[in-house]
Amino acid sequence: MTNKNLLFIFRSAPCSSPMAQEGLDALMAAAIFDQNVSVIFMSDGVWQLQPNQRPSAGKNMEKMLRALEMYDINQLYVQTSALQERRINPQYLSINCTQVTDSEIRQIMSGADHILSF
């Protein structure tokens, strides 16, 4: 099986729908099968990076995000403009992500074999 460059884009807030949870499940499954994965948190998806979230139902997203390192998922990016628009201080994100501009996001997208958006 040939490894693919998979880009996962998270645009959904963590509690607005099951999309964020389903995306994380798919991300981890891809990593288990040794695919090259990258992640970008954009738009309302940056809310997933807020610490100390208390889900009323479902899995704790923060714990799952912290587990990404164990899956060798190290290419984690966050859209700088989305953080600024939502007045989120990148210093207080629950995981370390590289801030990227919209033009850098386009470059990352152009290098992906497949893009999955959640």
Give a brief rundown of this model.
By secondary structure, the protein is of the alpha/beta class. The chain has a single domain, classed as Hypothetical Protein Ychn, Chain: A, CATH 3.40.1260.10. 30% of the residues lie in helices and 20% in strands.
Question: What are the salient characteristics of this protein?
Answer:
alpha/beta; five-stranded parallel beta sheet; 118 residues; globular; 30% helix; Hypothetical Protein Ychn, Chain: A
What layout of secondary structure does this protein have?
Layout: E1 5-10, H1 19-32, E2 36-41, H2 61-66, E3 75-79, H3 80-85, E4 98-100, H4 102-110, E5 114-117
Parallel strand pairs: 1-2, 1-5, 2-3, 3-4
CATH architecture: 3-Layer(aba) Sandwich
Strand segment tally: 5
Query: What is the averaged pLDDT score?
Result: 92
Give the class from helix and strand content and strand pairing.
alpha/beta
Number of domains: 1
Write down the overall geometry.
globular
| Radius of gyration over C-alpha positions, nearest whole angstrom | 13 Å
**Biggest sheet character:** 5 strands, parallel
- What is the CATH topology classification name? Hypothetical Protein Ychn, Chain: A
Task: State the helix count.
Answer: 4
Superfamily at the CATH H level? DsrEFH-like
Low-confidence stretches: none
Across the major sheet, the strand order is 4-3-2-1-5
CATH top level class name: Alpha Beta
Cα separation of the termini: 25 Å
Compressed to H and E, one letter per element, the order equals EHEHEHEHE
- Proportion of helical residues: 25-40%
Strand content: 15-25%
